[in-house]
Amino acid sequence: MTAVPNRLPSQRTAQPFLVELDRFQGPLDLLLHLIRSQDIDIFDIPISTITRQFHEALTDGLDRLELDRAGEFLELAATLVHIKAQLLLPGRSDSEWEDDPRAELVRRLLEYELFQEIARTLGAAELERRRHMSKGFLPPKPPREADGRELATTLDDFLAVLGDIRGPDPVETHLAPIRIVPVEDKIIVIRRLLGENRRVPFHRLFDSWQERQHVVAALLACLELARQQLVRLEQVKRFGAIWLFGRRPGDGGKEIGEGAA
Amino acid sequence: MSPEQIVEAALFASQTPLTARELARADDALDVRRVREALAALREHYDTDGRAFQVYQLGDGFQILTRPEFVPYLERFDSVPRPPTLSRAALETLAIIAYRQPIGRIEVEEIRGVASTSVLRTLQDWELIEVVGRGEGLGRPLLYGTTSRFLDHFALQSLDDLPGPEELSVALARTAPEASHTHAPAPRPEEPGAG
Hints:
Oligomer: heterodimer
Shape of chain A: elongated
Strand content of chain B: 5-15%
Shape of chain B: elongated
Low-confidence stretches of chain A: 1-16, 257-261
Number of strands of chain A: 3
CATH architecture of the largest domain in chain B: Orthogonal Bundle
Low-confidence stretches of chain B: 170-195
CATH topology of the largest domain in chain B: Arc Repressor Mutant, subunit A
Number of helices of chain B: 9
Number of strands of chain B: 6
Structural class of chain B: alpha+beta
Helix content of chain B: 40-55%
Largest sheet of chain A: 3 strands, antiparallel
Helix content of chain A: 40-55%
Distance between the termini of chain B: 42 Å
Strand order of the largest sheet of chain A: 1-3-2
Strand order of the largest sheet of chain B: 1-3-2
Structural class of chain A: mainly alpha
Mean pLDDT of chain A: 78
Number of domains of chain B: 2
Strand content of chain A: under 5%
CATH superfamily of the largest domain in chain B: Winged helix-like DNA-binding domain superfamily/Winged helix DNA-binding domain
Number of domains of chain A: 2
């Protein structure tokens, strides 16, 4: 920001060129505006005046610009100062345009101005083109609702459509079993089976139901009967089959099938 | 069926521009020359009959479009949204690319004096420019050129329709260099389409 000279507010307001930097595409645009709006001969730019005015514009708006954009303006400001310094150097011949420190800047300005003019031409062509519509400019759309016309649909139409409407997919539900398997029932089953067989495999107590509740009830029933010494549980190896044996006469316990139940 | 009617039917049924070559495909008796004759006859008929539309050339394609004076009527409908009009930055960048193509980003920025990455991307998104090659310089920079949609967007028949140096001299003439300054380099757009 050191390139921007500090000026008193009174001096600044005296300047006729208070410009909004946002209005300009960039530093070249601003510089061209300063030159053209004052009818300055672009091949004989009063660098001193223009540089001052350029700085004025920056002082007023630079801090509102993004850093990148501000940098672009500052770069040209530095170029202007550089040109001004070169013009002050002694020994410069006035005759040759190529030797003029301003030549390169003027070349850029003229080139940019040319493309600005082309851009304006294109802009006008664009506007003209937009006044021609192709097919599809008005898209088909459903008629507006509730425009006062009577419904042209019969009840039969309505019902026919209704029949075609697929209802929502049935919700997959999982019904938790509300029936509780009483341990007592399992005890009765065990007693009955052992009345008919010498031994009963444990899984037979719940196989026909395929429900965890029956397994639990069967296990509890077995444990209860074993506690009462009414059955004997045998498992030959770990995770092997469990067998229930009824207490036989002479085993010392009560005989199954005739107990307390 | 006359060639005129066949061409008219094809143009009517199409939503996009058709080239003369494409139109000629409609019938064995048609060729590009006959299609062009038919197009000219159609245009004349539409003018004399006072139709609300006309055959316009966009790039190398032809399309039936409404005449501009019907815009106020058509705008009262819910119309199809069109791309917004281009910003000044976009128009400037397009102008540079149109005349200097193929051209890289750095060269565009040198002329405009401002960063142009985002505007180039926007123009690419709208398919107004495309990558046409890679430069020789460091990093083999992408080179951009205009597309057929660019011609359509500005209702240009070809790049030759862009204003030539003599039409653009107005801006330069205002402050023509004095006699001693005749060596001043005056920028001229390259001949459009020369690349």
